[in-house]
Write a structure and sequence with these properties.
The complex is a heterodimer of chains A (397) and B (323). Chain A has 14 helices and 17 strands. With 397 residues, chain A is α+β, with helices and mostly antiparallel strands. Chain A has 2 domains: 158 residues, Periplasmic binding protein-like II (D-Maltodextrin-Binding Protein, domain 2), CATH 3.40.190; 223 residues, Dipeptide-binding Protein, domain 3 (Roll). In chain A, strand 11, helix 10 and strand 12 form a beta-alpha-beta unit. In chain A, helix 7 runs antiparallel to helix 9, helix 8 packs antiparallel against helix 10 and helix 13 packs antiparallel against helix 14. The radius of gyration of chain A is 25 Å and the shape is globular. With 323 residues, chain B is mostly helical. Chain B has 2 domains: 73 residues, no CATH class; 223 residues, MetI-like (MetI-like fold, Orthogonal Bundle). Chain B has 14 helices and no strands. In chain B, helix 5 runs antiparallel to helix 6, helix 6 crosses helix 8 and helix 10 packs antiparallel against helix 14. Chain B is globular, with a radius of gyration of 25 Å. The termini of chain B are close together. The relative contact order of chain B is 0.14. The model of chain B has no long low-confidence stretch (mean pLDDT 85). The chains are: A alpha+beta (397), B mainly alpha (323). Chains A and B meet through helix 3, helix 4 and helix 11 of A and helix 3, helix 5, helix 7, helix 12 and helix 13 of B.
Chain lengths: 397, 323
Amino acid sequence: MTVKVTYSEPYVPALESWGIGIIPKHVFGGAKGNAFNEHPANKKPVGTGPYIFKEWRVDEKIVLEANPKYFDGRPHIARYIFRVIPDNSVEFLELRNKSIDTMLLTPDQYHAYEEFFESYNRYRLPRAVYTYFAFNLARPLFKDIKIRKALAHAINKSELVQAVVMGLGSEATGPFLPLSWAYNPAVKDFECDPELAKSILAEAGWLDSDSDGVLDKGGKPFEFTLITNQGNKMRSLSAEIIQQQLKKAGIRMHIRIIEWSTFIQNFVDKKDFDAMILGWTTAPDPDQFSIWHSSQKKEGQFNFISYENARVDAILEEGRRTFDLEKRKKLYQEMHRIVHDDLPYIFLYYPDYLPVVHERFEGMRQVPLSTFGFGWNFDKWYVREKNVKYPVINKDL
Amino acid sequence: MTPYLIKRLFMMIPLLLGITLMTFFIMQLAPGKPTDLVTDLNTRMSSEAREKLVKLYELDRPWHERYWKWLKRMSRLDFGTSFRDGRPVIKKIAESLPATLLLNILSLILIFTAALAIGIFSAVKKDSLFDKISTFFVYLGFSVPTFWVALLLMIGLGLKLGLLPISGLRSIHYSDLSAWRKFLDMSAHLVLPVFVMALTGLAGLARYSRSAMLEVIRQDYVRTARAKGLPERTVILKHAFRNALIPIVTLLGLMLPELIGGSFIFETIFAYPGMGRLGYDAIMARDYPMLMGIGTIVALLTLAGNLLADLLYAFCDPRIRYQ
């Protein structure tokens, strides 16, 4: 069967945006709107993938079984049970108890005592995520690029990588990840130099005239509030470290940690913040129109920092129309450099993806393709007969 | 008695209405809405698509209008469907309730037996070594953070000694087991949660029963019973204990809402599929129909529990009669 979709203008990320599960007509019977949302088949998905949905016990587990009719042959692993363990430290205890086969580790768990991992293989892979420090460019304090540059020089990214992700990540230079072809390896980052930061600020008139350790100008101290969301340890830890680093440059930064919904609704969407720490998950296609284009500044849109650059606008427009990969690469690498130099964000770090898998599993192949780079060939994973831990009793599998 | 009961039951209607109205109103005060879970910071979601979603769930209507609609549906005992996955609210509650009931009833039984035993012994042997030691441990259990005790027991009994499973309610291969093995499997999974839960609930009740017993033991009829020459055992268990039970029994009624509310902390730590997590997830997702469903049922049970406590009181204590 062929599906044909016609667009009124060229749109390169089109194919990627079509990533949607099959909605079988014979199951849903053409249900629309709320009737579709409430259709019981949503809880019993039917598709064409390597596994067949078997059972879902809410808050407990989801059971999948190998699809014998899968186009690429029946997967080797007969049953996949996805257990729900809400608490991360309990999940880790279950791993140490060998009652689960795989999980995602936090950086400190990755570095835990070696004996925990005697029968497990740890992996360290790139992850399609970056954490950033965003300036609200509509605020007078951050309108001047010199001020932003001073802050960029005052922040020590390698300290952040060491302390926050315990070295399991790398310093970020722009909105594209090192594993993407859009990444520009030639971009040189601002070097960490608190003294340089101070002298830039002094040029702009910020001096510590009352010698209280905080710079001031016209009787007003250099201070602002950084916000981030509750429940993300890495972000709050980053905020605290940056607070200390900026203090050395004579900048007083306050931290406010806010519950997610309130954070988005009352602060991000309303653009009511000085600066914030947040992260973006990136798709394999580098189109980031909705984040950087100057037309995307309305309430609730994603250019919430009010970034505006005519060249970046032009690149974003051209980039999603250009099918030639070489041409696109040039465009996005140029954008990487501009966005780095313009400093709407200080790009902090790319955290690594840290899965752990029981050693009896073989056949995994890693590809540098976003977060799906691991486990993408799960249907080809296998366990040697002598190592089988859970023999499948059900004969028809 | 019957007119009193009818009066009380009728009084529950305005109370219940008031509670649901407050719940609905307070829910709207919290920033955010149910659709945020899909739309927040989703760069693939246009503002038109967001508005469509808001319309679909009628979130653009004023809150009193939506409350009225909810009330009309409730009058037909229709709890509506969850915004999160479109499944009927009542069905989701029915799925989570049995596990919560099981855990809470077991731990309540444990709490009551242990608390009464400790309470009576410490009262009878007041200021003895047993009294002091039990008081110390009961308070210790009450004061230490539950999640910490839970993790320590998981590491000790689960990981190091391998005696008990660490978390969950069933093993992975549960469906392949025989009925007897299934029973054993579930029992083993329940030991730690029931024990840890009882540990924290024990303190209050043990102190209650101790003071109730102390008061009864000083009464004249206990002295009379002793004077009659009854053995000490009969005096304590038959004459004193029964009367000391009166205030304790009424506490049972007040525990009814706790029985089904579930506990978010316990269920999260033990990866236990119950009402506490259902409620918490509904709050975080701003799943209004789900929240209203849980809220209404818990409110109803609280009111019923209060009524039950009053009735039990009259039943146990002949001095109290309702007109």
